[in-house]
């Protein structure tokens, strides 16, 4: 028996055009095509990217973050428009960037990376205020990116508080 969710996933997979750079970005290098928990798969891509950029000086890290956000607004908006959906679940670049926000200037150690992952995913799924407001009221590529930016910022605040408490 094919469910409506299965049909939606088939449409998204068939809509992925490997020759379009904005699809690669929006789909989180293909991780958004995962049949199970695409947002979590996208966040795992964020963890890999974090491990690559974490050693950079803070200014360069922030430049990567701002660049990733800016490119994401374009790529996610364009891809969502092509799919005729406001925020398809397969678009996961917002999770990648949201995780990078959460991990900004956090101590570079595995427990922090795992804690940031769990905290960011929980906030992204739960969507407490103001994340839910952004998710509901801001549209287009900016809307796709904004709620995860807020989830990342809230996770960042909690992680920074924890880091200060342990110092």
Characterization of this structure:
The protein has helices at 4-15, 21-26, 38-53, 58-83, 93-102, 110-126, 131-137, 140-166. The protein is mostly helical and 167 residues long. Helix 3 (38-53) crosses helix 5 (93-102) and helix 7 (131-137) runs antiparallel to helix 8 (140-166).
The shape, in one word, is: globular
* Extended strand count: 0
- Structure classification: mainly alpha
Report how far the terminal alpha carbons are from each other. 55 Å
Overall number of structural domains: 1
Average pLDDT, all residues: 93
Instruction: Output the radius of gyration.
Output: 16 Å
- Poorly predicted spans: none
Please report the number of helical segments: 8
Q: How would you spell out the order of helices and strands?
A: HHHHHHHH
**Proportion of beta-strand residues:** under 5%
Can you summarize the main beta sheet? none
Determine the fraction of residues in helical runs and give it as a percent range.
over 70%
Short description, anyone?
The chain is mainly α. 72% of the residues lie in helices and 0% in strands. The chain has one domain.
What key phrases describe this protein's structure?
167 residues; mainly alpha
Q: What order do the helices and strands come in, and which of them pair?
A:
Layout: H1 4-15, H2 21-26, H3 38-53, H4 58-83, H5 93-102, H6 110-126, H7 131-137, H8 140-166
Helix pairs in contact: 3-5, 4-5, 4-8, 5-6, 5-8, 6-8, 7-8
